[in-house]
Design goal:
single chain; rod-shaped; mainly alpha
Length: 80
């Protein structure tokens, strides 16, 4: 079962990981044929890349927050 992606909307990290879990279960079951296995692997790779990009973006956002906090502390300390 494929998670439908509404037109014009990006798949969320949570939806992508849920679909990856489904793919892994299907592959682990041993019931997927050769062509289905290939398609599932392709889809899984795309989902993993999406998740990695999302985690990287969140990591950059957290780093920016930490830098903003550091700058604010430095500026507050400079005012003493």
């Amino acid at each position: 079962m494929t998670v439908p992606e509404p037109p014009g909307e990006r798949l969320t990290y949570e939806a992508a990981t849920a679909r990856l879990e489904e793919i892994i279960k299907r592959l682990d079951s041993g019931e997927a044929g050769l062509r289905e296995t290939l398609e599932l692997c392709r889809e899984g790779r795309t989902l993993v890349e999406l998740c990695a990009a999302e985690l990287e973006a969140v990591g950059r956002g957290l780093e920016e927050l930490r830098l903003d906090d550091l700058v604010a502390r430095l500026q507050a300390g400079a005012g003493d």
